[in-house]
Each structure stands twice: as structure tokens, then as C-alpha cells.
Amino acid sequence: MDEEIEVWEAARCTSAAPFLFPVYRASNGHAFQDGGMNHNNPVGLAVKEAPSLWTGRPKVDIVLSIGTGSAEGRIAEKNTLSQYAVHGWLKRCIDSFESKLDAERLWQEYHATLDEDGRRRHHRLNIKLSGTLPFMADTRAVDSMDDDTRRFFHDPGARRQLRSAAEALLASLFYICVESPTKLPLPDGIGFAFRAQIRCRLEQRYQRVLLDRLQSSGCGFLVHGRAVSINFEAHRCKLGKGESFRQDIQWQGQLRETFHICLVFRAEASAEEQPELDAPTAGGTTTLALKYEVSGSPHTWARLER
């Protein structure tokens, strides 16, 4: 515990950007500088560290990377270190250092290494800035960046990204507790009947607000390919008695079979939306059915019983 530092000290450490703020010496005696010197987009580092925090989890449930803005052009030349090196190896070294600070490029390179399942679990929110990227200490650019941010929240594509990230975060609040399966004779051999409960990691006092949000979005669960509705009134009644959210579910399968448990959101949207599942309706709109894995999904019984 002697090595631990306060949260405000950690914030001060990560803000110690070169040329702007001095190196911070924390109460434990160590000196710290802005982590962006090596990991300006720390998403890859965070994913590598996750297994040490949550042992026994082969994959993270969700990754949300939030950027501070990107632009088509580089930082204005007068604001870069490379202006001081006209040519030669020094300029190449400085250019290489500056490229390490391009968080959006680092995200694209990291995202390209992910498989299809990994890409569904990763979300990136980043504002497109007009013009060239301003110097980090250029206070004159604040008004322009504020305008760019407001435009971002009105862009249909950005709103879809925000919605997808928010709904995936809500789905990750749910997890399952499974009972021991029982053997079940099937026409093609022996199978197993599984019983489980979907539970919520939120404190009980916040679960009513979550239920209201889910009901307004027409939510339900998808358990091993079968739709399971949520009885919102029954759950509210139980919450009123001091009980926590518990949704009983069951399905049939094999012990080594992989099964998915998803939270499904339904909402009206224009035909230009790109849902994972959809059912056409009248009036040029579509009823979206966007599904997101709950925490730990997909599952196998072999992994759950460990």
C-alpha cells in the first residue's frame, strides 16, 4: 500500500505533458510524466492488462475508446517540433515521435488486428475536427472545437455510434448464474437441459431506472437463439419488495456447445440504418433489433463450471 497514490495524483501524473507541465513527483517518491509519450491511445495496453484484473476471463466484454478529436491534416507546422529540424535523421526521429502521438492512427492499427467478434465488442467515439489539428495549448481553438463537437452529436452516423456504445454498455451489466444441467433424451441422442438466471450487477436501487430504459427500447433477451421477453411489471414489483433483478431462463444443448445470451433493443429507424437483424414495417421505416452479448457471453458449460 505504500506504493499507492491518490486518484488526483494519478490525474496530475497523466497530465504532465512535456513542454507544458513539469514532471510530477508523487507522494510515494516516484516521478511521473504523461503516459501519452508511449501510449497516447492506451486501448491495446488496457486490453492486455485486463486479464490480470479479471482472472479466468478469456475476452473482455466491451471496450470503449474515447478520443479527443482528429483531423485530416497534421498539426500546423509552426506548432510541431519538426519545424526546428530542416532535414536529416533528427527530423526523421522527430516525425516518428510525433506519429506515436496520433491516437486515431493507433486506434485504426489496433482495430485492424481484431477478429469479427472483437470488432463487435470494441467501440470508438472520436470527433472529426475541421481544419488542421490544433496545438494542445492553443486556447484560441476552443470555440471551433466546441462547434465541431455540437455538429458531431447531430450527425446521424455519430448518433448511431453513440447508441451502439451505450446499448452495449447496458448489456454488459447483465450476467448469468447457471445450475447444473440435467440429462435429456433427444431423438438423436442424449442432450442436456440448462437452467439459469440472468442477473444485474447494478445496485438494487438503480435497477428500476434501468428497467424503465429497457422497456422504452422494447428490450428482451435472446437465449441460444430463442427470444425471451421481460415481464417489466413483475420485476418492478419484486424490486419494490427489496429483491434484485432475476430473469429465469432455460434452453437445451450439449455440454461442449457454445451458447449466446444477448440483450436485444428494438426501435423505429429509417431504412438507412444498418441493423444486425431487422423486420420491415410500413412507412419507409424499419424495426431494428440490435443485439449485444451480456457479460461473459458466449458461454460453454465447461468454462462456467470452473
UniProtKB/TrEMBL annotation:
Entry keyword annotation includes Disulfide bond: no
One Gene Ontology cellular component annotation held by this UniProt entry: membrane
InterPro entries, per database record: Acyl_Trfase/lysoPLipase, PNPLA_dom
Keywords of this entry: Hydrolase, Lipid degradation, Lipid metabolism
Superkingdom of the organism of origin: Eukaryota
Motif DGA/G per record, residues: 34-36
Domain PNPLA intervals: 1-47
GO terms (BP aspect): arachidonate metabolic process; glycerolipid metabolic process; lipid catabolic process
GO molecular-function terms, A-Z: calcium-independent phospholipase A2 activity
Protein's name according to its UniProt entry: PNPLA domain-containing protein
Species annotation: Aspergillus mulundensis
Taxonomic lineage: Eukaryota, Fungi, Dikarya, Ascomycota, Pezizomycotina
